[in-house]
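Quarterly update from the structural biology core.
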Amino acid sequence: MPTVSSEELAAAAGVNSAKLRKDFSYLGSYGTRGVGYDVEYLVYQISRELGLTQDWPVVIVGIGNLGAALANYGGFASRGFRVAALIDADPTLAGRTVAGIEVEHADGLEQIIADNGVSIGVIATPAGSAQQVCDRLVAAGVTSILNFAPTVLSVPEGVDVRKVDLSIELQILAFHEQRKAGEEAPEEEETAPPAAPPAAAVTKKRSEPGPDGDVPAVMPA
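Predicted structure, tokenized:
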């Protein structure tokens, strides 16, 4: 039976082991002193707390390049999510099969949600139609939305929205790259200001006679 110690988990998570044990105690998992935690049981407890031990039907609205890529993503099933339906407003897409699922027309969105007991919707439409799709999802009973459209959605209280903006994520990475480039650049050597010339050398020639008619060769500045 594979086990893991709180020290190993804390090191991997970058937290204090005492705090980790306290957090795990809220899950009802105390582990065994000198042995650690049963990995399989611990994963189950965390998954149960996160709501990942049940089947969550999900609809994806907008089956363009991004929507099709999401439909083909193989990680949903292992985390407790099942793509129940693919929906698009383009009539030429209706009836096509993507990731083994037949695309359905947006006209039947409300009935599809009701038939599948869907509470989570994914929006992968263009920005211009995202709010309208959101309103229809909410009206049909969807209470959680994952939004990939490049726009901010307005939803009533009680509806959760998570926005995934790929351009912002890239901007964050670009910022970190800029920071790393600045840290790696060699520091410029500080150059001392030029030393002031000796007072005796600060002279200037006069080429014109003074008031008394004498023409000194040099005179102090």
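Confidence is low (pLDDT under 50) at residues 200-207, 215-221.
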